Amino acid sequence: MDTAEAMLSVLVVLIILVSLLSNVLVLVCFLYNPEIRKQVPGLFTLNLTFCNLLLTVSNMPLTLAGLVNRGAPGGHGMCQAVGFLETFLSTNSMLSMAALSIDRWLAVVFPLRYHSKMRHRDAALVLGYTWVHSMSFSTVAICLSWVGYHRLYASCTLSSARASNRTQFVVFTVFFHAFTFLLSFVVLCVTYLKVLQVARFHCRRIDVITMQTLVLLVDIHPSVRQRCLEEQRRRRQRATRKISTFIGTFMLCFAPYVITRIVELFPAVPINPHWGIASRCLAYSKAACDPFVYSLLRHQYRKTCSDIINRVLKKQSSQNATGPGQRQNQHQGNSIPSAE
């Protein structure tokens, strides 16, 4: 193992640890807070979290084993099962992000009709479509034996070693990435850019009201006026920063891997094996980023985490306050029969 492979192995280990801990924390917050469970976007977040967790415990360790051993981990049947899961979970997670963007678009553009347009039943139907969509591509790949160990990515994924059906595999690969990555990216851009447009419109209205108020308050202190202007600037930047994070992390993590898969279809173009594994690590890193992008950085999840920590610390402090001697005295007092 050379230096680059050692660094990539360490990177995969870090991604596994961060993804496992962060996604488990999202699940804990979902189970702890009933308000999160009542919200419709919580279903999409829950589905995305389960996909990331399954990808973390099933595919990432085998990629690490393939990188260390420089060969296929496990038998052929196991690799096919893991490759099927990889295709299904990757597609499902992308479509879940697209569903979250549609939910935000409905909430911002149609705030008064949101609860009638997006109910739990509607969210369940959207999730059902994502599962059928993901299952269809995975089933076709496994039935046509287009799933196996790929040395370029050191993982069990879409692969075709037979030259007889190469044309069909090329067509399938192009369609697969067009209806997963490209479709999700287009939905993200259309919905979030519309959300950004509406957010900027509301910011301009608030800015006009704020400036009119500052003009009327001639005796206002300059520091207060400066704080109001700074709040205006932060308000305009906040929406842009959030939208850029949603779209930027999607492109940064998935685009290199998808582009590499498309370029790989042309045998005349050589691809560095280290780059193939690095692009795979970038795609894996999305599972570690999603809990922070969609959940843990939100105020509701931060407050839930704080409540859980405070409850655990309070329980530990109460146990420490009740020493072993005091607990023994309580036990002896409870064991003494009462005199009648």
UniProtKB/TrEMBL annotation:
The protein's location, in the record's own words, is:
Cell membrane
Annotated GO CC locations:
plasma membrane
Query: According to its record, how does it sit in the membrane?
Result: Multi-pass membrane protein
**Keyword Membrane listed:** yes
Q: Which domain of life is it from?
A: Eukaryota
Q: Which GO terms describe its biological process?
A: adenylate cyclase-activating G protein-coupled receptor signaling pathway
Q: Does the keyword Cell membrane apply?
A: yes
From the UniProt entry, list the residue stretches annotated as the region Disordered.
Answer: 316-340
Keywords of the record, alphabetical order, are: Cell membrane, G-protein coupled receptor, Membrane, Receptor, Transducer, Transmembrane, Transmembrane helix
| Residue intervals passing through the bilayer | 6-32, 44-68, 124-149, 169-195, 243-263
> Which GO terms label this protein's molecular function in UniProt?
G protein-coupled receptor activity
Q: What range(s) does the G-protein coupled receptors family 1 profile domain occupy?
A: 22-294
Q: What is this protein called?
A: G protein-coupled receptor 26
